[in-house]
Amino acid sequence: MDNFLKYFYxxxxxxxxxxxDIFGSFFNxxxxxxxxxxxxxxxxxxxxxxxxxxxxxxxxxxxxxxxLSVLIVVMLVRLVxxxxxxxxxxxxxxxxxxxxxxxxxxxxxxxxxxxKLLAMKVAxxxxxxxxxxxxxxxxxxxEEAPSETEAEAGEETAKEAExxxxxxxxxxxxxxxxxxxxxxxFRLTSVDNYYKTEYQPxxxxxxxxxxxxxxxxxxxxxxxxxLYYDLDMMRYFVAAMGTARIIILQxxxxxxxxxxxxxxxKFVQKDTTVVSxxxxxRERTELYGYFNEFTKRYSxxxxxxxxxxxxYYRDPHIVILDEMNIARVEYYxxxxxxxLEMPREEEWKVDIVTAVWDNDPCLIEGGNVQIxxxxxxxxxxxxxxxxxxxxxxxxDRAIPIDLDSRADAFECEPTPPLYISTDHLIELFxxxxxxxxxxxxxxxxxxxxxxxxxxxxxxxxxxxxxKQIRDYVPCFIGCGGTEIQAIDFIVAxxxxxxxxxxxLGFMKDExxxxxxxxxxxxxxxxxxxxxQYVDYLKKNN
Length: 541
Fold this sequence. Notes:
With 541 residues, the chain is α/β, with parallel strands linked by helices. It has 23 helices and 9 strands. Strand 3 and strand 4 (297-299) form a beta hairpin. It has helices at 2-10, 12-33, 36-47, 52-83, 90-125, 129-138, 148-164, 170-173, 186-197, 210-225, 231-241, 259-267, 285-288, 302-309, 329-332, 334-339, 392-397, 422-435, 440-457, 463-478, 483-494, 508-522, 528-539; strands at residues 246-250, 273-276, 290-292, 297-299, 317-322, 349-351, 368-370, 375-381, 398-402. The chain has a 5-stranded parallel sheet with strand order 2-5-8-1-9, with helices on both faces. The protein has a two-stranded antiparallel sheet with strand order 3-4. The chain has a two-stranded antiparallel ribbon with strand order 6-7.
C-alpha cells in the first residue's frame, strides 16, 4: 500500500498538479493584466531611458495585449452563448406544429377550391386551362362563391386526401400536375400525376386475423392462380414479414419461389414488382438509377419507381429481386441493407440526387426518397454453379425460407382477394408479439443450445438472431402454428446454416451427437427441420 501511495504521489499527483496549474496560470494572467498600478509603476521606472522608438514599441505591445484580451473575452462569451443557447420548449413546439398542420389543411382546401373553379371554367368555355389559370390568378375572388354544399364537399374531399397522403407531403400532393416530358424523372412524375388525379384509396378489410389471412391466402393461390402451397409455408412466409424487411426464398428451380410473392401481390390486390437481377450488377446505380449529364435526364429503374410509389398508398407491397445471387448481393444491395438496419423508420431514406430541381417529383425531399414500412423485399436464390454465394451479412438481416418441393394440388372453395392496410397488418404482428411471447422455458433451452454450439462447434447466436427469434415465434403462433415448430424452423434457417462454413467432412460424429442432443433438449423428434438439415449436411460433406 505504501509503495502504491508513493507511486500515486509521484505520477498521478503530478498530473493533477499540472492540471490545476492550468487554471492557476489563467488567474495569474488576469491578475497581472488588470493590475494597472503595478504595470504603470514598471513603465515609470523605465520611462526616463525611453527614446521615441521605445515609446512606439511600448504602445504597440500594449495594443497587442489589449487585442488579445478582447479576443479571449469574445470567445468566452460565444462559448457561454453556445452552451446556454435558447431552446424552444416542448409545449411551444407542439403549439407551432399544430399551427403548421392547420395552415396545411387550409392550403389544401384552398387548392381544391381553386382547381374546382378552374375545371368549371374549362367545362363552360372549352378554353385552355393554363390561360384560365392566369385569369383566375388575377382575380381577387371568383364571380360566384361556392354554395355551402360545395364547400362542405370540398372539405370532405380534402379530409379524405389527408388520410392517405403522407403528412410531410400534403402540400405537394395538390400541386398542379407536371408534364412528365418536362421533368428529368419521367416515371416518377407520371406516378405523381396518377395519384393526384385518378387514385382512390380502397376500402380495407381490417377485421381479418393472421390465421385467417394465411388460410385465405393459400386458398386464393390454389383456387384463382392454381398455385399450391402447404399451409405451413404460408405461415413461414407471413411470419417472416412480421420479423424482417428482407426475405430470401431459396431452392431448386420450379418450386414456386417467384410465384409465392407474386401470388401475395394478387391476393392483396397490389401487384408485386419484379426486378430481374443481371450478372453485371456491381453497384447501387443498378437499383436506383443515375442522372445522365449528357441528356439531363435521370435513368429511372423499376426498383426506384416501386419504392417511390410506396409513399402514396398503404397497401402492403413486395419487391422481388429475381435471381438475386446471379450477381454479388453485397455489392449492389449493400446500401439497402444498411438503411433497413436504422432503428427509426424516418431514417429509411435513399439518396437519389444532390440537387433538387423545380419540376422534380413531389416526394423527393432534399434529394432523398423515403422507404416506407409498407414495402418488403423478397430475393429468390438458386444455388448452382452459375450463381454466387450469399454473404453472411445478407443472411443475417433476412429470413431465409427453403422451397425444395411443390405441394400436392387440392380442391377448395373459390376464394376472392382482399384489401388489407399495412397499418392493420403491422398491428396484427404487434398483437401477436404481445399475446404470444416465447416462453421462458424455450428461452432457457435456446441458451443451453447456444452454450453447446459454442463448446462443440465454436458457433454462437448473435443478438440480431435472438431478436429475430423473439419476433418470429409469436408471429408464427399468431398465424396458427406452434411454438416448437417456429423454433425448429428459425434455428435451422438462422443458426444451423452457419454450419456450412465449417469443415463438416471431419465432424460427422459431432453432427450425430448434435442430433441426439436436440432430442434430449427439446424432446424426441420435435426439432424435425433441424435434424433433417443436419442429416443433409452429413450426407453431402
